[in-house]
Design goal:
With about 475 residues, the protein is of the alpha/beta class. The protein folds into two domains: about 25-125, Alpha-Beta Plaits, CATH 3.30.70; about 155-460, Rossmann fold (3-Layer(aba) Sandwich), CATH 3.40.50. The protein is about 30% helix and about 15% strand. The protein has helices spanning about 5-10, 20-25, 55-60, 75-85, 110-115, 155-160, 165-170, 195-200, 225-235, 265-275, 310-320, 400-420, 425-435, 450-460; strands at about 10, 30-35, 85-90, 95-100, 115-125, 180-185, 205-210, 235, 240, 250-255, 280-285, 325-330, 350-355, 380, 385-390, 395-400.
């Protein structure tokens, strides 16, 4: 059986009727906020009905109680939306709402008359959409020389050495047993690249989920997520090694590269909740939003406090559920916007900026702080000419905070392998307390370049005693 066939046997796809799917490809999208969860058939006393055993165990490990935010939305509300002529794309239990698309028979008046409907807002207005072209499968990458190094890391050596990751790997900590969810905009040709065969053949692909209506194949389209994945999972002996090659992975596409619209933020929320339900330990996301094609629903810099935008609230909620969440801060540093993007204002999240090989902030890396004065980024990693694998599985280079974030996420997974009871707050404490500017953080690089060797020793001493 081919790698692609193996993946397709566990591919998760939203099931819509042919007619609804056809309509979806040209329909607007809406967010419906529910007023309550009254009459729900679900109970906090029966979490196994909507959470995996692993998700329940994670909550128990950290003393997190299953509460009303864990309850799925009331299925009767969902049925009513459908009876009003809408396709329900996905729901959010944390924010208590649903993303819907109208069919030809949609009745908005009837929809709004329901007492459980608190609000309805358009999140994808196709009259304003700027349709970007899809990724071209035959795009050519420039060839880069591969270092003839005996360290086995090839092009990836500098970025792993900078963070002390090579030391962790030598101790045998390569992410084994840790589950990482990658939320991105597409994983082009990842199912056809030999550098990931150890993941597929080792049974370490947890699931593949596409949140895009009418685009049920995450292995087509944009290659951005594939490059993010390569930084963690890729292995090409002697030429490239990722930061967590032995971790397990869940791939979720929330971004549609054909346009920029608020609906993508709701897709992101759905991806967070799916990853939580599946029991992941780490979520890494290299997505951020500041403006949209409609020119109306832009982000307000003064509201980047983690409490205003539902995408940021949801990402902070993932941390509260015991997940270590990593998010890039964005590439707005050299633009008029300059600052971070949502959801990197989320509370409790490990936000990551980019530096060059000399350790100085990359010009494009967004500045902090958040609107409520928190450092963002918290730490930095190599994001200028970062080594990646391209869509053909060949060593290449790219730049962006998008690639700095998974470097940190992968090595964080290695620390979780070493110290499995470590909470997100404890892991964050260790990483920021041992970074290069821990004693003098600033709004450009936060606490500085992360040092996972030092973080390991810090954890060993502070949380487990010197004999760990």
């Amino acid at each position: 059986m081919s790698i692609g066939q193996k993946i397709k046997t566990i591919l998760t796809v939203a099931l819509l009727s042919v007619s609804a799917l056809s309509y979806a490809q040209r329909s607007n999208c809406y967010w419906v906020r529910f007023a309550d969860k009254s009459g729900s058939p679900y109970s906090v006393k029966r979490p196994w009905e909507y959470l995996s055993l692993r998700a329940i165990e994670r909550r128990a490990k950290y003393g997190i109680k299953v509460d009303s935010t864990d309850l799925p939305v009331n299925p009767a509300y969902v049925d009513t939306l459908r009876s009003c002529g809408f396709v329900v794309l996905h729901t959010s239990r944390w924010i208590n709402g649903a993303t819907i698309m109208p069919t030809a028979n949609a009745d908005f008046v009837r929809l709004r008359r329901n007492k459980f409907v608190e609000s309805v807002e358009c999140t994808l207005d196709r009259q304003f959409v700027v349709e970007h072209s899809d990724w071209d499968r035959i795009r050519k990458y420039p060839d880069y020389p591969v270092p003839d190094a005996n360290n086995g890391y090839g092009n990836a050596y500098d970025q792993i050495k900078m963070l002390g990751g090579d030391w962790l790997h030598r101790q045998g900590f390569t992410g084994e047993g840790v589950r990482i969810a990658v939320i991105d905009g597409g994983f082009f040709n990842v199912d056809g690249v030999r550098a990931y065969s150890h993941v597929w053949n080792g049974g370490r692909l947890i699931d593949v989920v596409d949140l895009m209506p009418g685009r049920p194949d995450v292995f087509n389209g944009n290659p951005h997520g594939g490059q993010v994945l390569s930084v963690m999972a890729g292995v090409d002996d002697g030429r490239f090694v990722g930061t967590a090659p032995d971790a397990s992975y869940m791939l979720l596409r929330s971004e549609d590269d054909r346009y920029e619209a608020p609906v993508e933020m709701d897709n992101f929320i759905a991806a967070l909740e799916i990853a939580d339900s599946a029991g992941v330990d780490v979520i890494t996301a290299s997505l951020g939003y500041s403006s949209f094609d409609d020119g109306v629903n832009g982000i307000d810099i003064d509201k980047l406090d983690g409490a205003h935008y539902r995408i940021s609230i949801a990402e902070g909620m993932a941390v509260k559920k015991g997940i270590f969440v990593v998010n890039s801060v964005g590439n707005k540093g050299a633009t008029a916007w300059r600052t971070i993007t949502v959801p990197s204002d989320a509370k409790g999240v490990m936000t990551v900026g980019a530096v060059g090989r000399a350790g100085a902030r990359a010009p494009f890396s967004s500045y902090g702080p958040t609107a409520d004065g928190r450092f963002a980024p918290l730490v930095c990693a190599l994001g200028r000419r970062t080594a990646v694998l391209n869509h053909r599985g060949e060593p290449s280079y790219n730049s962006g905070t998008s690639l700095a974030a998974p470097l940190v996420a992968g090595l964080s997974a290695c620390l979780l392998q070493a110290f499995s009871s470590l909470s997100p707050a404890q892991l964050t404490d260790a990483i920021i307390s041992t970074a290069s500017k821990a004693s003098s953080p600033d709004d450009e690089v936060g606490y500085g370049v992360a040092d996972f060797h030092a973080a390991y020793l810090y954890i060993q001493k502070k949380y487990f005693g010197a004999n760990k």
